[in-house]
Amino acid sequence: MLKQIEGSHAVAEAVSLCRPEVICAYPISPQTHIVEALGEMVKSGELDRCEFINVESEFAAMSVAIGASAAGARTYTATASQGLLFMAEAVYNAAGLGLPIVMTDANRAIGAPINIWNDHSDALSMRDSGWIQLFAETNQEALDLHILAFRLAEELSLPVMVCMDGFILTHAYERVDMPTQQQVDRFLPPYEPRQVLDPREPVSIGAMVGPEAFSEVRYLAHAKQLQALERIPVLAGEFSTIFGRESGRLVHRYRTEDAETVVIAMGSVMGTIKDVVDEMRASGVSIGALGICSYRPAPLAVIRETVKGARRVVVLEKSLAVGLGGILATDVRMALSGLHLHGYTVIAGLGGRPILKSSLHALFERAGRDELEHVTFLDLNWDVVNRVLERERTTRRSGSIAENVLRDVGVPTASGV
Amino acid sequence: METQIIKFYQTGSFAVGNRLLDESQRSVQANMRRSNSLNSGHRACQGCGEALGARYAIDAAMQATSNQLIAVNATGCLEVFSTPYPETSWQLPWIHSLFGNAAAVATGVAAAMRVKGRQDVRVIAQGGDGGTTDIGFGCLSGMFERNDDVLYICYDNEGYMNTGVQRSSATPPAARTSTTAAIGEEPGNGFGQGKFVPAIAMAHEIPYVATASVAYLRDLEAKVHRAMSLRGARYLHIFVPCPLGWGAASEDTIRLARLVVETGLFPLFEAEHGEVTGRYQIRHRVPVEEYLRLQKRYSHLLGKRPAVATIARIQAMAERNIRRYGLLGEEA
After folding, report:
1. What pTM value is reported for the model?
2. What is the ipTM of this complex?
């Protein structure tokens, strides 16, 4: 059924259709609307046979999810940013225990300085946790990925994080096609755990493993992700049969055939990039885009296959490996080994900085002339940066960098007005 | 008719000997059909108070629930000595997740049981004092506050023993640990610090809070039974001596667990909805020195030049407990 609703509500409805049995909620922007909506559904009885638990922290949210999932319940939670970091220990633990928890990450920057707006630093900080991480381009895909996530998670006994851009998707009112309960039930069978806490069959879960077996256990975590690489396209195929649309593939290619320049990105920025690709194609530039939906497992072979005929790859990412450059770009490089093409890293959209079509036009044109720096910070205000660096060089007690930058860019402050 | 007073007490204590009682009145541990939840063969040290405490408590909880019990365990000695894969001493479904989240994991298990209509299955969470009073305290308080249907058991040996005897917020004043050396102006752990979590649990006004000691088996078992007869958040804080961490002889575990009560240093009581409903009254009152003397962690207080003032401060703590909880019985 077509609906014009907020992204968060679309996700909440989709999660509800998946018949979750335990939901744990802790507020953090921009994820809150999802659990608020689910809380209302449970309280009103619209979503029955579901326990909704208001916990005291994100660490507790993931811990409650671990307990519920280990006891055989289909379990969901949502978080973002600092919340994801606060639960980090439990995030790794859930993956290590092989618990098919599904969690939404409403992608948001990480402080300090505190910043509530969108980028991908939070999700990417958990890239090695063992979770499957899927990135949504649109609200429709965000909704669909949750249904796919439960199926994939339970099939593989692995947790799945559905990443959707905070505010840009979570708070945008868009048209979505909401599936019916019958469709979701057809796609998602009841959860049958591989191992469960049950007095009828006592097992010990989560005991210590020493050097004699730890490497094998870790390899098998990797092997599961490789299985996911095979299962995601298969499940996406099944999904499109039942729901009548494409969602949740490993990657989304856009005009990449014969493209000399391939732009690689994740999440909602693909919309802007596709517009720019169309406009540049119209003026004869050979350019295409590749959206990564499955960040973990990393679809290295598909990336390689897509770009092997190109002359250059521009990885545009909303994340920064401080002291290195790009995070996604470093991953993509794994796929390019032995290919002779130019690779550019572009750090863009940090902390909610808009990624403008005009900026992308200029960027891709410079890339086309191979004039880009190895690592580019899109729309960086160099004047301000240089002023801060100069101040730090000349003054010992130079104060807070964050505050100085804001003074220098001329944002009115209480003392300055 | 001539009568004779028969004392049912075991030597050195006021515990009634099992063999003198009717079978229905005997302790769970004396019952041939006890579940032996923490089975033999584990790797605990000789004289480990925690191993005793865990077996006593879980066996009693198993009996109270007709074996419909799931245990969640925090990281720590109990987790490590009982389970390295592929071996396990646990005879009930058991999960270890992290150091600081046992209470929250137990909340999740309880929620799953409720949603699946398995309300006959009960949930306990357990951890040491570090996992309870320090790193797991946030999750513990959250579980209490929501009144989740979990019995949390803290085995308190007054320090981080698994990592090599470091100070926790349950380490008593003056005790030497590897992070509170017995040197300087105030040797050992400082005074005026630490927290008594049973009192904090009571402040949550949860249905049941109790303290117990491994020297008082029947009292401990009765408290577990009481706890399992109630729904909602419950807390049991069990005093468990650690021979290794305290520098005590293995055979003194029960003696220490008794002396700590008889001195008044560790009050045994129960409380329901924030109000004390029962207390164990001291019958052989002993000065704290008798308790301290058996432990190397206090040896700096008791050498050739005893730290009289410090011992007096510890004695004052005992007096305060006796006053606060009304611990003096008739025979003291």
Report:
1. 0.96
2. 0.95
Instruction: Please list every residue in chain B whose beta carbon sits closer than 8 Å to the beta carbon of residue A198.
Output: 70, 93
Nearest residue of chain A to residue B92 (CA atoms): A202
pLDDT in tens, A134-170: 999 999 999 999 999 999 999 999 999 999 999 999 9
Query: Tell me: the pLDDT tens digits for A82-141?
Result: 999 999 999 999 999 999 999 999 999 999 999 999 999 999 999 999 999 999 999 999
- C-alpha dist (Å) from residue B226 to A222, A316, B252, B278: 47, 62, 29, 12
Quick one: closest CA in A to B114, which residue? A51
A261 within 8 A of A314, measured Cβ to Cβ? yes
Least confident of A204-208, A361-365, B9-13, B288-292: B9-13
Find the domain containing B75 and state its range: 35-325
Please give the average per-residue pLDDT across A382-399, as a whole number: 94
CATH class of segment(s) A2-243 = alpha beta
Distance of CA A125 to the CA centre of its chain: 11
Domain membership of residue B19 (yes or no) is: no
Q: How many CA atoms lie less than 13 Å away from A354 in the CB half-sphere?
A: 4
Chain A residues in contact with B124 by the CB 8 A cut-off are: none
Q: How big is chain A by its Cα radius of gyration, in Å?
A: 22
Residue spans of beta strands (DSSP E) within chain B: 69-73, 94-96, 122-128, 150-156, 208-213, 234-239, 269-272, 275-279
CATH number of the domain residue B198 falls in: 3.40.50.970
Greater pLDDT, A287 or B18: A287
Within-domain flag for B2: no
- Chain B contacts of A93, Cβ < 8 Å? 97-98
Which residues of chain A lie closer than 8 angstroms to B101, CB-CB?
A: 59-60, 63, 66, 90
CA-nearest residue to A52 within chain B is B111
CA distance B205 to chain A (A): 18
Q: Under CATH, to which class is A251-377 assigned?
A: alpha beta
User: What count of CB pairs under 8 Å joins A to B?
Assistant: 156
**Residues contacting A224, CB < 8 A, separation 6+:** A98, A156, A157, A158
Domain residue ranges of chain A, discontinuous segments joined by +: 2-243, 251-377, 384-417
CB contact under 8 A, A203 and B96: no
Nearest CA in chain A to B121: A199
Per-residue pLDDT at A225: 97
Contact at 8 Å (CB) between A157 and A99? yes
- Can you give the pLDDT at residue B203? 98
Least confident window among A248-252, A287-291, B2-6, B52-56: B2-6
Instruction: Give residue B329's pLDDT.
Output: 66
Contact assignment for B108 to A22 by CB distance below 8 Å = yes
Chain B residues interacting with chain A (CB cutoff of 8 angstroms)? 67-70, 72, 79-80, 83-85, 88, 90-98, 100-101, 104-116, 121, 138-139, 141-142, 145-146
A195 to chain B: nearest residue by CA? B93
Q: What is d(CA B237, CA A340) in angstroms, rounded to the nearest whole number?
A: 66
Identify the residue among B98, B120, B145, B152 best suited for mutation to test binding to A, counting A beta carbons within 10 A and taking the highest.
B98
Distance of CA B233 to the CA centre of its chain: 17
